[in-house]
Amino acid sequence: MEIEKIDCLIIGSGPAGYTAAIYASRAGLNPVMYQGIQPGGQLTITTEVDNYPGYPDGITGPEMMQNFEAQAKRFGTDVRYGMVTSVDFTGFPHKVVVDGQKEIEAKTVIVSTGASAKWLGLESEQRLNGKGVSACAVCDGFFFRNQDVVIVGAGDTAAEEASYLAKLCRKVYLLVRRDEMRASKIMQKRVETLPNIEILWNTETVEVLGEEAVEGVKVRNNVSGEETVLEATGFFVAIGHKPNTDIFSGYLDMDATGYIQTVKGTSLTNVKGVFACGDAQDNIYRQAVTAAGSGCMAALDAERFLAALEVEHEIIQTA
Ligand SMILES: Cc1cc2nc3c(=O)[nH]c(=O)nc-3n(C[C@H](O)[C@H](O)[C@H](O)COP(=O)(O)OP(=O)(O)OC[C@H]3O[C@@H](n4cnc5c(N)ncnc54)[C@H](O)[C@@H]3O)c2cc1C
Hints:
Elements: E1 2-11, H1 15-26, E2 32-34, E3 48-49, E4 59-60, H2 61-74, E5 78-80, E6 84-88, E7 94-98, E8 102-111, E9 115-117, H3 123-127, E10 133-134, H4 137-140, E11 148-152, H5 156-168, E12 171-175, H6 185-193, E13 197-200, E14 203-209, E15 216-221, E16 227-231, E17 234-237, E18 241-243, E19 274-276, H7 288-318
Parallel strand pairs: 1-2, 1-8, 2-5, 8-19, 10-17, 11-12, 11-17, 12-13
Antiparallel strand pairs: 3-4, 6-7, 7-8, 9-18, 14-15, 15-16
Helix pairs in contact: 1-2, 1-7, 5-6
Bound molecules: flavin-adenine dinucleotide (FAD).
Subunit structure: Homodimer.
InterPro entries: FAD/NAD-bd_sf (IPR036188), FAD/NAD-binding_dom (IPR023753), Ferredoxin-NADP_redctase_2 (IPR050097), Thioredox_Rdtase (IPR005982)
Family: Belongs to the class-II pyridine nucleotide-disulfide oxidoreductase family.
């Protein structure tokens, strides 16, 4: 197998990866980036991004990510198509295999592989994705001001997102599959006391209605079997996210869901020279700007790690 030796490898091409790339290339680390199956990351599947600073009139997700890529390339980042298929972080340098056929030895690895929202799996949900269907209330709630929306989920995230939407929307229907929520007591209480949230217990989504935009949601009570239509222009799915971190399991410390654990306030993982940023290590904020901020941290941490390595090397040589 062909082996390439580099200083800095960036895995993933979302806001975190590209920001790391901009900083790492400007610091002279000659980073190589593998984009994975979704070049540009999650924002390439959305339309308007209205909350990223610096774009007063908003920008579409794909256009914004093209700008990120152009900026990273301007400073010399080697951006490549390819998927990291396995890693070996037991020794040093770190070994990474791309597309099962090329091996890279990297002194530093920046993991920015993101996370994917979980969906219900309905055809209508996918068809209307970005046209009223969303998995992020903080990102898209603003577009539904003073309108009626439906949100699905029963955990803390669903409770939090329902409360967030309640501040913007006229009415929020919260669909809970069982007769109780998984959310913490305090979050449940908050949801139950907000006057414009109506919780529909034992309720499942049958179909999101509408051709070009969400016009309503057909729901079924799974106890009585009764089906009803809720009039709504927004449909939010808040049933969890899955971080794209399976290939690192056994090497990097993760929580039960698979989010990489970093040392508080840094991008350091439990493996020296491996740094994590963006949604792959963030189960709380999950925003483009926070991902970008943590990408900057990862590049600075990698730069410091390489500088310390160089000093160590010089001391050994002069001893
Ligand atoms: C529909 C939608 C709308 C959103 N709207 C907004 C918004 O308006 N404002 C906002 O701030 N946030 C928004 N978000 C959230 C935002 O997109 C994420 O917080 C952000 O993209 C996270 O960036 P990231 O770099 O961590 O990861 P991601 O953007 O998820 O990128 C991950 C990258 O890793 C790559 N990858 C994964 N596995 C591998 C592998 N094995 N090898 C190589 N590469 C790999 C992928 O191909 C991808 O390029 C939205 C999200 C969605 C889904």
